[in-house]
Structures are given as structure tokens and as C-alpha cells.
Design brief:
By secondary structure, the protein is an alpha/beta fold. It has helices at about 15-25, 40-45, 55-60, 105-115, 130-135, 145-150, 160-170, 185-195, 205-215, 220-230, 235-250; strands at about 5-10, 30-35, 50-55, 65-75, 80-85, 95-100, 120-125, 140-145, 155-160, 170-180, 230-235, 265. The strands form 2 sheets. Strands 1, 2, 3, 4, 10, 11 and 12 form a 7-stranded mixed beta sheet that branches. A 5-stranded mixed beta sheet has the order 7-6-8-5-9, with helices on both faces. Helix 4 (about 105-115) packs across helix 7. The longest helix has 16 residues, at about 235-250.
């Protein structure tokens, strides 16, 4: 069996997409290496991994990237784990601390603040600590498991997934499996297969939730609610529309110089070849 290595974000929302690989041990066709989103592109470029589960902006701005079709991390409404916290009304934000582990969410926040509240704050990149961030800035962005649990009395909170969907009517794609041009279609097949095995519709769901809990400090109830009510994993036509609109807005707001036409790669079952 051909063996691949991929890089994944170390967050609860990735658990359904990588659990099956981890559960297979040495017999898995895919090894998983975990790192923060901002560090994964370098691992792909160095050849350490063949695909990365990474911020969607990575595929949008890099002409050499291809997206694995069929699977992603997305939301259609509140996402809860990607939030902006503000000490002042949103329309009064002048300084914004950005989560150093993020790419997509940082840009999304600036788009939403500009289009909805007509503000373009000065940005500072910082480690994701709400107390330290709000000591030096009016507002801050925190993502992932820390974004889910961060709290401070009296702050205003913007759920970026909910705000995007209210603003556009579309889902937001937070991350995709992304590879270099010419990504192996067999790998694309295994990434979709693993998502099916980790789905709530599979018989493996209790094991997926337990795996997610071992990798986090969350309760079982919180994990189940988050993975079923907040996150969706299918990259379908509406998700692609949301991704394409985000790419368009990145260019319009000057957050990327250009956005290439997105290319999606379908899987090929190795048993059929």
C-alpha cells in the first residue's frame, strides 16, 4: 500500500478528518503530522508532507496549490471557535491584535469590520492570549480551541462564522486539504475516505469524540455539540461559492495581491486502478 504523510491543524474540528488514520496505527495509508495553521505551508513546501489541512487563504493566494475536493472544515452560521473580542463597540475599533497562528480568520475579521462597521484598524500580530492582546489593542482575534474557551468579563464578541453567513448568506470554509500542483489522486481518495469513517453517520462517532477529548480539555458534551452543530465537513457547491466570494473580497480589500482560480482534485480509489 502506498503511504503518504499529511499535516493537520491540532484542533478539535480536525478530529473527524484524521481520527481514522490515527486509529489504524502502522497499517494506515496516511501518517498525520500536527502543527498550527501558519506553520503548515512550510512543511508542504519542504516536502515533509504531501497535503495540509490548512487555512483556506493558503490555496487562494498560492498558484501552485490544489484543493482536495469533497472535504473541508466549514460552518454555516455560528462557529464558536473563531471569534473577535472587543473592549469597545465594533465601529470604534482602532487597533486589532491578530492571532499569530491564523491566516484566514485574521483576514476575514478585517473584511467584516470594513464592510459592516466601516473601520480599518491598525493590526498587531500576537500569541493568542486574550488578556495580553486586549492590554495593547481595542480588540483581538483568537481561533481554534483557545478561541472556543477564551473569555473576559464585559467584552463584546463577534462570532466570525455567524457574521460572515449573516452578511453573505453563504457558508465559510475555514480550512481545506491542500497540496502542491499534481497532488496524488489516491491521497485525495484516502482523505475523503477518512472523513467518511469519522462522520457522525458512521458507527465510529463515539470513538471520534473520545479521540477529540484526549487531544483537548473540552468535555464530551461540548465536543459533540461543536462538531455536530457548528462544524460541517463536506466541500459542496455552496461551500465553493463561499470560498470563491472570500477570495474575491481578499483582493478587493487589498489583503492579497491576487487570487487564482481555485482547482479541485477528486480522489481515485486505488482498488480501481
Amino acid at each position: 500500500m502506498k503511504r503518504f504523510r499529511v499535516g493537520s491543524v491540532p484542533y478539535v474540528n480536525a478530529a473527524p478528518l484524521i481520527w481514522w488514520f490515527e486509529s489504524q496505527g502502522s497499517s494506515s495509508p496516511v501518517d498525520v503530522l500536527c502543527d498550527v495553521p501558519s506553520a503548515l505551508p512550510a512543511r508542504l513546501e519542504s516536502g515533509q508532507v504531501s497535503a495540509i489541512l490548512v487555512s483556506s487563504i493558503e490555496a487562494i493566494q498560492n498558484p501552485d496549490r490544489e484543493i482536495i475536493d469533497g472535504v473541508c472544515i466549514a460552518s454555516h452560521g455560528p462557529v464558536e471557535s473563531v471569534r473577535m473580542f472587543s473592549r469597545v463597540p465594533f465601529a470604534q475599533i482602532k487597533t486589532l491584535a491578530l492571532d499569530e497562528s491564523s491566516m484566514t480568520s485574521n483576514a476575514l475579521t478585517q473584511i467584516l469590520l470594513s464592510e459592516i462597521h466601516d473601520v480599518k484598524p491598525k493590526t498587531i500580530i500576537m500569541p493568542p492570549d486574550i488578556n495580553q492582546m486586549l492590554e495593547v489593542a481595542d480588540a483581538c482575534v483568537i481561533i481554534g480551541d483557545r478561541g472556543m474557551t477564551a473569555q473576559m468579563p464585559g467584552v463584546r464578541i463577534m462570532d466570525l462564522g455567524e457574521t460572515w453567513t449573516d452578511h453573505t448568506g453563504l457558508p465559510f470554509v475555514w480550512a481545506t486539504w491542500t497540496g502542491e500542483s499534481g497532488v496524488d489522486r489516491e491521497l485525495a481518495y484516502w482523505l475523503n475516505y477518512a472523513a467518511q469513517q469519522g462522520s457522525i453517520l458512521s458507527g465510529n462517532w463515539p470513538e471520534v469524540v473520545r479521540y477529540a477529548q484526549m487531544e483537548s480539555a473540552w468535555s464530551i458534551d461540548l465536543i459533540e455539540r461543536y462538531l455536530t452543530d457548528c462544524i460541517q465537513f463536506e466541500l459542496g457547491s455552496e461551500e465553493k461559492k463561499g470560498l470563491e466570494l472570500y477570495a474575491q473580497k481578499l483582493v478587493e480589500h487589498g489583503l492579497v495581491s491576487s487570487a487564482k482560480q481555485l482547482k479541485f482534485v477528486r480522489g481515485r480509489n486505488p482498488a480501481s486502478t
